[in-house]
Design goal:
9 helices; Rossmann fold; alpha/beta; three-stranded antiparallel β-sheet; five-stranded parallel β-sheet; binds 2'-deoxycytidine-5'-monophosphate
Length: about 240
Amino acid sequence: MASPGNGRADGLVIALDGPSGAGKSTVTKLLAGRLGYLQIDTGAMYRAVACLLQQAGIDPDDTEAVERFCRDVDIRLEQADGVLRVFANGQDVTDLIRTPEMSQLTSRIATLGPVREAMLQSQRRMGARGGVVLEGRDIGTVVFPDADVKFFLSASAEERGRRRYLELVAKGEQVTLEDTVRAVISRDRQDSQRDLAPLRMAGDAIAVDSSGRSIQEVLDIMLTVCRKTITQRELSQ
Ligand code: DC
């Protein structure tokens, strides 16, 4: 774990990992808001890469083309009026990256070494000074193994599928509950069985199960841990 005096001038590095649909994005946004920290949605970054690869017509199996593409890919996150906007090589892709099709493609391209390396470097730069909540799959294990606080947020696949289904229906997508639960399970499998940086809980992460808990309850658990860590850090400085 990071010690005080780790060079993070602006606050803690908080890692929030877990499978899709566990509530990470909502909790990350609220947690970052309450602490006055920056929210870094690393899943959105992988989604933005998938979107660009698709637009460029690059086959994910074409290793050389993917490597070339990753050499100067530029993904940026900007918060405006409470909305996180995602820019991929300057293009606003916020609304393009959330379709079920893009979710499946993202899970696939997130297995590729050059893509992970490019995102790793970019995420480390973004979080280097601290004062950040990063949500993803490998933040506590690979991106910031010395994060000051690590959470692993989970929920049953059925509950996560149901939440995702309601989100998609609210956006007007034509999906069924059964297909959405199946897609969640398939992404879990792909994300946790890949060779590079698979989804897995860090040994020193705090497990939080959001099944049957309200967002407020989950947020309270996390805020208590973070505030305690901030106080300890201040006392030892
Ligand atoms: O959190 P999300 O559903 O937006 O993530 C989209 C995909 O990106 C998901 O299938 C896993 C992958 N991902 C990853 O491999 N590593 C991360 N740090 C974040 C997301």
